[in-house]
């Protein structure tokens, strides 16, 4: 007799050293796919599914030890680190395993696109499903709304904004404002930063909340353009902010 679903309680496995890592690996069932398990990579911030690959025990071990996703290539019959040639690495934030202990979910910070085609995710193709069953509880308009995303809140972040602006690099300056700014170099971008910084200050002094929000958005936009011009990755700035965690601002300034 199968156990009821609520008989299974969430499990957290602490991995602090080689012994605990070994115990964790023994918990995972590699027997069903000839020594492999499916591993799904999910964007830590947007929750978007990025890719599906396979791991053997060594790949999972390397992933846990290094904090970067490693997989096993069935076509090349070898272990590989995601991004080892492209630089599009996956930094691990969390690792989950399923109720049967035979599948892995990686929540990752993806650097660059996840797919070898250059798309952000490998799942960029979809079917136009016309086989929906219209039950008595769901009407046609509700189904259409679900398909079109009506009413859904789209995830947004500064990382997505960075990626969007970076995608304009190399575009025609006559057709893209970002490309025009990048062509103008640090002098043109810096001038915009000066102008927007002053607008932010003046808006704060005036107490105009809506204008302050608007000008801060402009300022963030031009900061990101400067980062892209200087070939500085978004996460380089995040890493610097993380480095300062727990450090007094006065101490950090004196240490410069």
Describe the structure.
The structure is a single chain. Strand 3 (70-73) and strand 4 (78-81) form a beta hairpin. The longest helix has 30 residues, at 177-206. The protein has 8 helices and 6 strands; from the N terminus they run αββαββββαααααα. Helix 4 packs across helix 6 and helix 5 runs antiparallel to helix 6 (209-229). The strands form 2 sheets. A 4-stranded mixed sheet has the order 2-1-6-5, covered by helices on one side. Strands 3-4 form a two-stranded antiparallel sheet. It is an alpha+beta fold and 256 residues long.
State the helical fraction: 40-55%
Order of neighbouring strands in the sheet with most strands: 2-1-6-5
Order of helices and strands: HEEHEEEEHHHHHH
Number of strands: 6
Oligomer: single chain
Major beta-sheet overview: 4 strands, mixed
Q: Beta-sheet strand percentage?
A: 5-15%
Global structural class: alpha+beta
Uncertain residue segments: none
Radius of gyration: 24 Å
* Intertermini distance: 66 Å
Backbone shape: globular
Q: How many DSSP helices?
A: 8
What is the average of the pLDDT values? 87
């Amino acid at each position: 007799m199968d156990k009821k679903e609520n008989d299974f309680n969430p499990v957290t496995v602490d991995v602090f050293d080689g012994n605990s890592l070994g115990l964790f690996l023994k918990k995972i069932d590699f027997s069903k796919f000839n020594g492999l398990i499916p591993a799904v990579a999910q964007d830590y911030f947007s929750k978007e599914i990025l890719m599906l690959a396979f791991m053997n025990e060594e790949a999972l071990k390397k992933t846990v030890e290094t904090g970067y996703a490693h997989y096993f290539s069935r076509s090349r019959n070898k272990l590989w680190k995601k991004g080892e040639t492209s630089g599009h690495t996956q930094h691990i934030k969390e690792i989950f395993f399923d109720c049967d202990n035979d599948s892995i979910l990686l929540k990752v910070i993806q650097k660059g696109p996840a797919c070898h085609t250059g798309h952000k995710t490998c799942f960029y193709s979809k079917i136009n499903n016309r086989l929906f069953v219209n039950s008595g509880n769901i009407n046609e308009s509700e189904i259409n709304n679900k398909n079109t995303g009506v009413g859904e809140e789209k995830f947004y972040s500064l990382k997505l904004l960075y990626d969007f602006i970076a995608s304009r690099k190399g575009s025609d300056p006559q057709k893209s404002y970002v490309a025009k700014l990048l062509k103008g170099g640090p002098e043109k971008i810096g001038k915009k930063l000066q102008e927007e910084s002053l607008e932010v200050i003046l808006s704060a002094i005036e107490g105009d909340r809506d204008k302050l929000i608007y000008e801060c958005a402009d300022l963030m936009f031009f900061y990101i353009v400067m980062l892209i011009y200087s070939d500085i990755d978004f996460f380089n700035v995040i890493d610097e902010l993380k480095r300062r965690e727990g450090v007094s601002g006065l101490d950090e300034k004196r240490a410069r």
